[in-house]
Amino acid sequence: MARTVTLADVAARAGVSTATASRALSGKPRVSREMIERVRAIAAEMGYRVDPVARALRQGSSRLVGMIVPVIGIPFFSQLVDAIEDELNRAGFELLLADSHGFIDEEVRRVRVFHERRVDGIFIIPSDRTASTQSLANLPEGFPVVQVDRATDRPVADFVGVDNLLGLQLVFEHLAEQNVATVAFAGSDDASINGVERWDAFHRLARQHSMTVRATYRSEFSFASGTGAADHIHRAGPLPDAIVCGSDQIAVGVISKLRELGYDVPRDLLVTGFDGGELARVFWPSLTTVVQPVSSIAAEAMKLLLGRIESDDGAIHRNRLAPTLELGASSQRRTAPAS
Amino acid sequence: MARTVTLADVAARAGVSTATASRALSGKPRVSREMIERVRAIAAEMGYRVDPVARALRQGSSRLVGMIVPVIGIPFFSQLVDAIEDELNRAGFELLLADSHGFIDEEVRRVRVFHERRVDGIFIIPSDRTASTQSLANLPEGFPVVQVDRATDRPVADFVGVDNLLGLQLVFEHLAEQNVATVAFAGSDDASINGVERWDAFHRLARQHSMTVRATYRSEFSFASGTGAADHIHRAGPLPDAIVCGSDQIAVGVISKLRELGYDVPRDLLVTGFDGGELARVFWPSLTTVVQPVSSIAAEAMKLLLGRIESDDGAIHRNRLAPTLELGASSQRRTAPAS
DNA sequence: CTGAAAGCGCTTACAG
DNA sequence: CTGAAAGCGCTTACAG
């Protein structure tokens, strides 16, 4: 490769100024059609490729987009990163990825670094509903940012996420068909908007379907949180007909713990998850879960970011995308014993 | 933030040339101690931060490192990305992440783009044992590259991965203790070196332990590949005492399919996985698996890359790190029925 | 130890 | 439509 051929080389060979060569290559107006063709042919022949760094310095933009996530290793987040990388790539951007480990200080620092690097925009999964507002505070007014999956309470940037209420509506309609009368909730705390909304939706829908709430438990989005929840719900008294979980990892933890305690899902009670993905399908029993429209969320996020990059227009968007329900074994009573 | 204060601003305020200011800030030799202190104080006071883009253009280096993976969304890969991002960050680099989707063309293209972006080095999980050699062919001689998890056959760059033979040794020793006499293999094909080595190790160790090989099945590293394997092994004749799998996803697929066919693991036969991680622990039965030393692999990869960045010394390294065996329920016969 | 000046590779007013 | 020149913000020989 030997990074060598430069705009000046191309211009020299074409016998024109670098100005003209630059215009011809970048499709700027005010260059003759034949000039464009000639310069492009020569550039192609010489294997010329514009230097992104020089261009970034000159234009103040880099075709780089940063993304900050609480933890890369969590399946749902890595799925999201995957989908967003595809979108970026299709649009000719490169992805700068950062892990905040859930610390606000880290979020703040990474946003600053990204900005200094002249990224054209930032995707962020805020680690905290309220504190994450700070992360964006140092950015100049109107800097393109899209919050993905989680929004901060204060609408400081565009947002795309799942419609939590709709997701739980699907769950409850399904549970109602299974004649569920008593329910429990195993979800996450108020740190993220999803924790808040799923919790609120759970109560609202239980009431609406006249189901009795037996017990609730809130902690994090993790397997361990699920085992803790099962323990708590078990100790709280008679088991409910169904446990509605705030994520698939929680659901898996709940079911594993119940098994340890001597209960079988779905024989003794039903369990549902939230997120969708491989875990839900390979787990035994397979999980009935609310499947997030990951690709659509990524596509929508990209659209919003491009919108901000191209024109810094006014109102802040907060878009909710519709999830679907995937039925698994975990919420369907077998008519006859399986074996 | 309003990206404004520049080196010139600092120099002006300090009453020195930008040359001196630059030297003072970057700790270059030949500046007086007091000059250094004065300039630094002023810079700090003004909130000056060096512009990485300008520096990159001038120095030809960017403090950016690229990483190319076959698919970000696969748990083991995202764990690796996570660990490497931590290492990079600690060393003051930013991560440029790309997904090749397993296509060589994409790999080639992303490597080229990274190089043009002036990354200081590249981590790559090659998608193919032989073809991926091409991806690096366009790089100038001595460009810092480290292959992670998978090596190409031709040693075109440093490599860090797991010691597959040792991993399967641990598995076989454990199976021998369980009095396993017949075994089957469910692994991946020859596309990656891990597929090759685990396959070879399986045969070598079966012979060594005088175990009879009942059936083998090779496809990809996926859940579906596991269900296919179970089907094949089941049809091939009497079931073996144990099925050794090339990854946890395969193991989970194998167990699920066996269950569907009416067999219970570990009651009817034992199953082991490879990789380690949450899936192995939350699955039911929990998986006995070879746990890859992900953090150590990342740390070692970083060390090799830094070595290449600092001095382009000679010999190519191919480092194998020792895994450990995590015992789960999937490979241990219960003395008495569980329920 | 410090400064004036060139230059990394582009893009873009400003003239013509 | 095209060119000469400035400049994005640094770093680094080259002098002194």
Structure described in brief:
With 339 residues, chain A is α/β, with parallel strands linked by helices. Helix content of chain A is 43%, strand content 18%.
Topology:
Two copies of one chain form a homodimer.
Chain A: H1 7-14, H2 18-26, H3 33-46, H4 52-59, E1 64-69, H5 75-90, E2 94-99, H6 104-116, E3 121-124, E4 145-148, E5 158-162, H7 164-177, E6 182-188, H8 193-208, E7 212-219, H9 223-235, E8 242-245, H10 248-260, E9 270-275, H11 278-282, E10 288-291, H12 294-310, E11 318-321, E12 324-326
Parallel strand pairs in A: 1-2, 1-3, 3-4, 4-5, 5-11, 6-7, 6-8, 8-9, 9-10
Antiparallel strand pairs in A: 10-12
Helix pairs in contact in A: 1-2, 1-3, 2-3, 5-12, 7-8, 9-10
Chain A binds a DNA duplex (16 and 16 nucleotides) through helix 2 and helix 4.
Pfam families (chains A, B): LacI, Peripla_BP_3
Keywords (chains A, B): DNA-binding, Transcription, Transcription regulation
InterPro entries (chains A, B): HTH_LacI (IPR000843), LacI/GalR-like_sensor (IPR046335), Lambda_DNA-bd_dom_sf (IPR010982), Peripla_BP_I (IPR028082)
Oligomer: homodimer
Give the termini separation of chain A: 64 Å
Helix content of chain A: 40-55%
Q: How large is the radius of gyration of chain A?
A: 26 Å
Give the H and E element order of chain A.
HHHHEHEHEEEHEHEHEHEHEHEE
CATH superfamily of the largest domain in chain A: Response regulator
Shape verdict of chain A: elongated
Q: Please count the beta strands of chain A (DSSP E, at least 2 residues each).
A: 12
Helix/strand structural class of chain A: alpha/beta
The CATH class of the largest domain in chain A: Alpha Beta
Q: Give the rounded overall mean pLDDT of chain A.
A: 92
Name the chain pair whose interface involves the most residues.
A-B, 53 and 53 residues
